[in-house]
Design a protein that fits this description.
With 91 residues, the chain is an all-beta fold. It is built from no helices and 5 strands. A hairpin with a 4-residue loop joins strand 1 and strand 2. It is elongated and about 55 Å long.
């Protein structure tokens, strides 16, 4: 499930946000059954993105995210955060 929104602040600036939650159930997926039983993972993620278009051809993008994965399988749970800076030129 996810929820997102986009807002064109001006003709040149766009803000986007998204909240996401995904659940994966791996019951019956393994060829060799795990001794730990059923595996179920849940991923949660929040992100925000800003796009600036100084010209119609050029885009500058800044994005930040934070999320975490929780799992019933030992050692498969972890947090994650990051940033993305990118440019795009279309001709």
């Amino acid at each position: 499930m996810s929820l997102g929104s986009t807002w064109d602040v001006t003709d040149k600036i766009r803000l986007e946000g998204q909240l996401k939650r995904e659940t994966s159930d791996y019951s019956g997926a393994a060829v060799i059954p795990s001794v730990q039983g059923e595996r179920k993972d849940t991923v949660r993620r929040a992100e925000i993105k800003m796009t600036y278009k100084p010209t119609p051809e050029l885009q500058l993008v800044a994005q930040a995210y934070h999320g975490d994965r929780s799992s019933t399988l030992a050692g498969n749970s972890y947090p994650g955060s990051g940033v993305l800076l990118a440019t795009r030129y279309e001709f």
